Each structure stands twice: as C-alpha cells, then as structure tokens.
Amino acid sequence: MRIDVLTLFPEMFESPLSHSILKRAREAGIVDIALTNIRDFATDSYRKVDDKPYGGGPGMVMMCAPVFAAFEHVAALHPAPPRTILLTPQGRPFTQSLARDLSTAERLLLIAGRYEGFDERIRIGLNAEQISIGDYVLSGGELPALIVIDAVVRLLPGALGDADSTAEESFSEGLLEYPHYTRPETFRGMKVPEILLSGDHGKVARWRRQQRLERTRTYRPDLLPPDKP
Ligand code: SAM
Predict the structure, then answer these.
(1) Which amino acids bring their CB within 6 angstroms of ligand 1?
(2) Fewer CB atoms inside 10 Å of the end CB: C or N, the chain?
(3) Which residues contact 111 (CB under 8 A, 6 or more apart)?
(4) 101: closest CA among 129, 78, 137?
(5) 11: helix, coil or strand?
(6) Is the Cβ–Cβ distance between 143 and 38 less than 8 Å?
(7) How far is CA 70 from CA 38, 75, 139, 182, in A?
(8) Interacting residues of 201 by C-beta distance below 8 A, sequence separation 6+
(9) Which residue from 49, 88, 143 has its CB within 8 A of the most atoms of ligand 1, so it is best to mutate?
(10) How far apart are alpha carbons 32 and 198 in whole angstroms?
C-alpha cells in the first residue's frame, strides 16, 4: 500500500512511523508512507497557507490554493489513483470496519487540517471522504492521520507477526476481545482462571467466546444487535 499525507507538520509523524509495527511494515515494503508539507505549495513569499474567514469570526481557515497544489503534485507521483481522506471532526466516525475497508485500498491520501479547518471548497473540489476519529476537537489532523495509519497498516498482510492475531481482536465480529493472562499464575492473590491452565483447547476456546460476549454485554452493549442485549 502507498500512503501519502499532506500536513503542515510532517515532523510530528517521524517518531510514530519509526517504531515497532509501523517501522517494520515500512522496512518490509508492506507500506510506503510519504509526507508532504502543504506549506511548500504556498504561492506567496510569506508561505501563507491560512487566511481570515469570510463573514468574520474567530481563527483562520486553510486556503484552497496550497492544498489543491499539494494534492495535485502528490496525486501525480504514483500511478494508483488515491482514496482521498480529509481528517475532520465532522467526518464519518472511524471504526475497525472502516479501517478494514481502507486496508483494501491500493493507495490512501490523507489530508491533515489545522486552525479552524479547511475552506469548504477543498472538500468539494477534491471529492474527499471525511473521517473523524471521535467526538472531540483536536488542534490538528496529524494525530488523527497517525491513528488511521496505525489501524490500517496493522491489518495489511504480513504487518503483524501472527497472521491470525487480528481475527479475535476487539471489534472483529462486533465483540470485544477476551481477557489475557501471562505468568505468574498468582499475582497479589489474583489467580489465572483454572481453565486456561487445563490444556483443553476446546474448553479454552468456549470460555474465551463466552468472555467476549460477557465483556461486550457489560462494557459495550451498544455493539450488540438489539435482539441480543
Ligand atoms: N473548526 C473545526 C470544527 O469545529 O469542526 C475544528 C478544527 S480543528 C481545531 C483543526 C483540525 O484538526 C481539523 O481541520 C482536523 O484536520 C483536525 N481534527 C480535530 N479534531 C479531529 C477529529 N476528532 N477527527 C479528525 N480530525 C480532527
């Protein structure tokens, strides 16, 4: 997969993209991630990328010209047409199923906003999908873009060591994951459930399934269909 990011703060991406699974996936050629600074496409000598809102009001708005110029430059760098995404709190909520859907794309192009957000003509003119990472407002789209990248890349074939490890994770099949335990068997009086020590794989699988249902009912009943609360 190829992922392009348009941002005013490419440095914010360096550390998260240089560790653990994202680092390994990039090194293994599973994903190619390229960062482009929108400010490099400003058209005036002050490298201006934002301006006052028409109609008045607080803050500044990201201007069309630098974003369109950056988009057109980057879109032409790679043969696959990108699935273009604006990160915005007004977007479709980001979920595991949307991450799975995005993980099937050959190419993503993420655009991170700043200030009061984008001139509306950026959304219209680029025909971009809008994605929100949750019902709260952050200062910029860099962290949301990194969240989307992380959730998508770990679903790409070969990105995780164990091919099955996303199959029963939280939100797959609409359920939370079962609880995990590791050594020691007893810690501060708290024991590992006997069944996990039994060596009976069938019983363990049934227990885990039941735990997934119970946890989902307790912590996230909204995930269950209305007839199974
Ligand atoms: N004025 C905008 C509004 O009220 O809808 C919020 C702008 S926010 C301060 C600046 C940028 O941060 C946005 O353009 C977007 O790229 C990013 N952002 C903030 N919260 C976000 C969220 N929950 N999901 C995705 N992006 C977000």
Answers:
(1) 87-90, 112-114, 116-118, 132-134, 136-141, 144
(2) C
(3) 5, 6, 7, 67, 71, 84, 85, 86, 87, 118, 122, 126, 128, 141
(4) 129
(5) helix
(6) no
(7) 6, 8, 21, 49
(8) none
(9) 88
(10) 44
Q: Cα separation of 221 and 229, whole Å?
A: 6
The 10s digit of each residue's pLDDT in 175-225 is 999 999 999 999 999 999 999 999 999 999 999 999 999 999 999 999 999
Cα dihedral 195, 200, 206, 211 sign:
positive
- Ligand 1: centre distance to CA 54 (Å): 19
Closest CA to 174 of 103, 104, 226: 226
Query: What is the value of pTM for the model shown?
Result: 0.96
The pick from 62, 64, 87, 142 for probing ligand 1's pocket by mutation, whose C-beta has the most ligand atoms within 8 angstroms, reads 87
**Which residues pair with residue 3 across a beta bridge?**
33, 108
